[in-house]
Amino acid sequence: MRQANFLMAVLALLACGSLLFASVVGSVATPVPDLIAAFGEILRGQPSSLTATLLELRLGRALSAFVTGAALSLAGVMMQALLRNPLADPYVLGVSGGAAVGALGAMLLFGAAWIVDAAAFGGAVVVALLLFLLARRDLRGGAEGSAPMLLLTGVIVSSGCAALVTLMLSIAPENRLRGMVFWLIGDLSSTQPRLLPWLIWLAALGFALRMARAINVVALYAEAAATLGIRVDRLRKGLFLCAALLTASAVSSAGSIGFVGLIVPHACRFAWGSDHRLLLPAATLAGGSFLVLADTLARTVAAPQQLPVGVITALIGVPVFLLQLHHVQRRA
Fold this sequence. Notes:
Elements: H1 2-24, H2 32-43, H3 50-83, H4 95-108, H5 113-134, H6 136-140, H7 148-171, H8 174-185, H9 195-210, H10 212-220, H11 232-254, H12 260-272, H13 276-300, H14 309-331
Helix pairs in contact: 1-3, 1-13, 2-3, 3-9, 3-11, 3-12, 3-13, 4-5, 4-7, 4-8, 4-11, 5-7, 5-11, 9-11, 12-13, 12-14, 13-14
């Protein structure tokens, strides 16, 4: 318990450090005394100087990046527990595909930014409800622990959404095509701080921590979990609902940012074990910090031009995931 508390404290400090780093790093150099004064102006709610305004913009973007990364990592752990598949990620069931269809449809029809976000969230929720109706037998908790019908249904729905996305990209005019592609890759340059993603993340994290012991039992003894007093149907439905809402909020805020919900849970599991009482909070804090640092790199490495953060996470995620697989094979 003491070691777990120490780890949580270290990860919390890392999260705060990443937010501070993202707030002060950029293409415009700012002296330390000006930064201290700017922080004071922001705390008083009166960012009057240019440094304070710039710092407020950076901090708002960093907070959006943190909650997006935390939501994706938490959704990844939940999906892996629900499907009992280590390759599962937040996008495996097609929820992000529904968000992409909604967002690109709004962009195609000259939708404002808030309409695009709302359409993305609505598309993700529609796909989640469709999956719930088509694969509710798996969510009730049968003898199979891996929910095969849910996974198969999600793959098929995801393929249908991908076809619709390809169709919209093929008929989109040139002046809107770049923005649509950037959204698909994953981009935080136009995101705005919002309260809803934080509420969804905190509610899902609270549910996950309360059910962590049950998740451990289902992960190890899926067939016998019901005889051990675990409400498997309620647990699976809760995991699915939370993962779907987390994915919907993350994708509607920043587009389809890949690899965060896959490599961060794997890295945390590899480093600290598979006990979900520790894995769930560790993964969500590490995922938030990772995306903040990746977004900082995306907006500074080629400044003043900004890169899509999804490109950075993919470039980091591919070698890291291959390295993790190599270590797993060596252990086996």
